[in-house]
Amino acid sequence: MDKQILRINNLSVSFEEEKDKVIAVDDVSFTIEKGRILGIIGESGCGKSTLALSIIGLLPDKISKIENGEILFNGNDLSKFTEKQFEYLRGNEISMIFQEPMTSLNPVFKIGRQIAEPLKIHKRLKGRALKDKVIEILKTVHIPNPEKVYSSYPHNLSGGMRQRVMIAMALSCEPEILIADEPTTALDVTIQAQILFLLKELNNRSKTSVLFITHDLSVVAEVCDEVMVLYGGKVVEQGNVYELFDNAKHPYTLGLLESQPHRGESGKPLPSIEGIVPSLSDMPRGCRFSNRCSNKFCIKCEDETPSLFNIKDNHTVACWLYEKEGKYFE
Q: pLDDT by residue (tens digit) across 154-172?
């Protein structure tokens, strides 16, 4: 077995909402092995970004709390880390690419200075050696004329170029894990394809493990090795990317696959999942997808939360239809 870089065990994260407490991530478990890419998919509000922020220690202190579970990075439980410990970890051993390249860069500092900051802090580089390293990193992410970009401000660059800079910054210290939180959402299709190719190329070259968060199934199919589907803060299906796309089981996963534009027939409405994602403060009591599920077959779906049932090696699904050894109830 390859080395496990990250292991999440039964993680639950809560938020204070007015006078109530809501669970945004509920009993989530998964592993990432060295050099592998895990895709996390789901609709907005399902807990994807909360999960990422909990790993890197950026949850808002006063309104959030890790209720339960472990975040094991190379055997160390990050859920117990202090801010001082996270300062050493972030940008050095774990890095993150945030959702919006237009606002993630500081507009008042030049690109070279922003990429250089983690190298100064973690690698103790300075002077000419620091500048040379930054330009080398800009070349690595295929930025043309890196010397000019080094001296440019963010507003001088296009969205695609800014995202390349964000990737360069995240990879500057050669982290073991890269968290990419919807890194292609704000980009057009052509630039999106270039960024995905770049991430895959860098993953193959440096063997950096990647946690890739997205709501776009086509992106998952393009770059990921494994997939985890979240709904309402819970894992509903996990598996190898080929297995999940070819043999999806959970009604929610099937609904996501059917909703892809290329599956629709010309001149007909695009298939969609009926209903809306319930509020975190008003989740169904049993299966969280039960109020939208067309395959709901008994009162058990509404009253009891399904466990993750094993369908085959590296493929699990949280659905009562597969309670008996992966067999469909007829």
A: 999 988 899 889 989 998 8
How many residues belong to the chain?
A: 330
List, run by run, the mean pLDDT of 10-residue segments along the chain (330 residues).
Answer: 85 88 93 94 89 94 92 94 92 88 86 94 93 93 93 92 90 92 80 85 89 89 93 94 92 88 70 83 88 82 89 88 59
- DSSP letter for 277, please: P
Pairing between β-strand 226-231 and β-strand 37-41 as defined by DSSP bridges: parallel
Residue 20: CB partners within 8 Å, gap ≥ 6? 281
223-244 pLDDT per residue, tens: 999 999 999 999 999 999 999 9
Ramachandran region, residue 305 (left: φ > 0; alpha: ψ -120 to 50; beta: rest): beta
Ramachandran quadrant class, 110 (left: phi over 0; alpha: psi -120 to 50; beta: rest): beta
Kindly give, in sequence order, each residue whose CB lies less than 8 Å from that of residue 119, ignoring residues fewer than 6 positions away: 125, 130, 133, 134, 172, 173
Torsion of CA 214, 218, 220, 224, to 10 degrees: -150
